[in-house]
Specification:
It is a single chain. The protein is 36% helix and 16% strand. It is of the alpha/beta class and 203 residues long. The protein has two domains: 6-172, Aconitase, domain 4 (Alpha-Beta Barrel); 175-203. A seven-stranded mixed beta sheet has the order 4-3-2-1-5-6-7. Strand 5 and strand 6 (149-151) form a beta hairpin. It is globular, with a radius of gyration of 20 Å. It starts with 5 loop residues before the first strand and ends with a helix.
Length: 203
C-alpha cells in the first residue's frame, strides 16, 4: 500500500448526499478478479452515455477538474452495499482522498484498509471547499496526515479526527498483509518449529 503522509492535490466537487456504492462502481463491473482497472467504470452511469461518450455537465467530465485527486462530496458518501471495489475504483481513477461530512461505515473502513483517506469535516467547511473548487481554477488542498490538517492557499486550515491505528497504517503504507509481514521472522520460526515437531510426531 502506498504511504500517505502529506499530500497536495486538485479538488473535484461532487456535493450530493447519499452517493451509494452502486453509483460509485455499478454492479455489472464487479466481475474482475484484480483490484485494478475499475477506474474506467467509476460513476459510470453518471459519467458516460450508453455509447461510452462523456455526459455533459458531470463534474469529472469538466476539463477544470482533469487530474483531480481529492473528491469532495455530500453527507453519507459510500452508503449502500459493502463492495470493496468502491475505494478500488476511486483510487484507480486517481483519487487519494475523499472529504465529506459523513460516510457509510463499511465504505469508510474499506477505504482506510486500501489506502484511500476518508476525511470527515463539518458541513459548513465542506460547503466552503466545494464553493472554492467551483469558482477558483486549479483549486488545491493539502492534507497532512501526521498533523491531521486540511489546508488551502487561501487561509483555510481545519483539523480532522482519524483512528490512531489507521493513521499509523496509512503513514507507513501498511495494509493487512503488510501488518502481518512485520512479523515474518516470527511466523517463519513458528513454521519451522511446527514442521520439526510434526515430523517427529509421525515417526
Amino acid at each position: 500500500m502506498e504511504k500517505f503522509t502529506t499530500f497536495e492535490g486538485a479538488v473535484a466537487p461532487l456535493f450530493q448526499t447519499n452517493i451509494d456504492t452502486d453509483q460509485i462502481i455499478p454492479k455489472q463491473f464487479l466481475t474482475r478478479i484484480e483490484r485494478t482497472g475499475y477506474g474506467a467504470f467509476l460513476f459510470n452511469d453518471w459519467r458516460l452515455n450508453p455509447d461510452g461518450s462523456p455526459k455533459a455537465g458531470f463534474v469529472l467530465n469538466d476539463d477544470r477538474y482533469a487530474g483531480a485527486s481529492i473528491l469532495v462530496a455530500g453527507a453519507n458518501f459510500g452508503c449502500g452495499s459493502s463492495r470493496e471495489h468502491a475505494p478500488w475504483s476511486l483510487m484507480d481513477y486517481g483519487f487519494r482522498a475523499v472529504i465529506a461530512p459523513s460516510f457509510g461505515d463499511i465504505f469508510f473502513n474499506n477505504s482506510l484498509k486500501n489506502g484511500l483517506v476518508p476525511i470527515r469535516l463539518d458541513e459548513a467547511t465542506v460547503e466552503t471547499i466545494v464553493e472554492r473548487a467551483k469558482t477558483r481554477d486549479n483549486y488545491l488542498l493539502t492534507i497532512d496526515l501526521k498533523k491531521q490538517t486540511v489546508t488551502d492557499r487561501n487561509g483555510l486550515a481545519v483539523t480532522f479526527e482519524i483512528d490512531e491505528f489507521r493513521r499509523y497504517c496509512l503513514i507507513n503504507g501498511l495494509d493487512d498483509i503488510g501488518l502481518t509481514l512485520q512479523h515474518e521472522q516470527k511466523i517463519t520460526e513458528f513454521e519451522q518449529r511446527w514442521v520439526t515437531s510434526s515430523r517427529f510426531a509421525t515417526n
